[in-house]
Specification:
It is built from eight helices and no strands. By secondary structure, it is mostly helical. It has one domain. Keywords: Membrane, Transmembrane, Transmembrane helix.
């Protein structure tokens, strides 16, 4: 990927030199900061930066929004499972509800920071869910109400699994490294472009140039800051699971 990108850039640069050489006899020298060459290159660089910047903002924004919905879906499935366990025999009900409470507390206290550090959900969380699923799968009841409750409980646990898998996917989602590099590169070029084009700012001309540089610097920083769904400015917190804990307390 990197090799082909470098090759494409070299081919494009070579094309510019070949065309410039071929048409040099019909053209005229152009070394002014506001000349045709500088204006064309500046416009194209601006468009390229804006395109890459838009991609770098929209994708993390979309992932964060999806991750927020998925965490609510997982927490709601936990609440529904907690409700369903209420129709089980007392011993089984207490065991299942205790396991759900422990899992929820584990996600809040430990797994959230683990996702930020490792871009994935923790193996310990899977172990807890597997243990609960295995235990529930071993239950057998004869009463209709208890059978129905067990079926509902199994469906809700499957819902937790599906949402958890999606949360793992969201934790590992991010912009390709090439997009981050291009955002940084094009942003840096836009900052120094007028000087590269031959302009020599004096006096008040520095004000808009420095203002643009500052805003671009903050913009590029934000691209890196929002690249992870569970940290940064668009951070998806564990609020849905904390709300679930509050709902457990009111479920009879």
């Amino acid at each position: 990927m990197i090799l082909w990108s470098i090759l494409a850039a070299l081919l494009a640069i070579t094309l510019v030199f070949l065309v410039a050489k071929s048409f040099s006899r019909w053209g005229r020298d152009d070394d002014a900061p506001d000349g045709v060459t500088a204006s064309h290159a500046g416009g194209m660089l601006s468009a390229l930066f804006l395109l890459i910047f838009a991609i770098a903002v929209i994708i993390p924004w979309t992932v964060s929004d999806s991750a927020r919905q998925n965490t609510h879906a997982e927490a709601q499935s936990l609440v529904e499972a907690y409700w369903a366990a209420g129709d089980l025999p007392e011993a089984e009900k207490d065991h299942v509800r205790a396991a759900i409470r422990d899992y929820t507390q584990f996600v809040i206290d430990e797994e959230w920071s683990y996702m930020v550090a490792h871009d994935d959900v923790s193996p310990e969380g899977w172990k807890r869910m597997d243990a609960l699923r295995s235990t529930v799968g071993d239950y057998t009841f004869t009463g209709k109400q208890q059978k129905d409750a067990l079926n509902d409980l199994e469906d809700d646990i499957e819902g937790v699994y599906a949402a958890r898998r999606q949360r793992a996917s969201d934790a590992g989602s991010g912009l390709p490294s090439g997009v981050l590099v291009m955002t940084l590169l094009t942003g840096a070029i836009m900052i120094v472009y007028p000087i590269l084009a031959g302009a020599r700012p004096r006096g008040r001309a520095w004000v808009p140039l420095l203002l643009m540089a500052g805003i671009l610097g903050v913009s590029v920083y934000l691209v890196f800051n929002i690249n992870h769904a569970f940290s940064g400015a668009l951070e998806v917190g564990s609020g849905a699971f904390k709300t679930a804990q509050q709902e457990y307390a009111r479920i009879p």
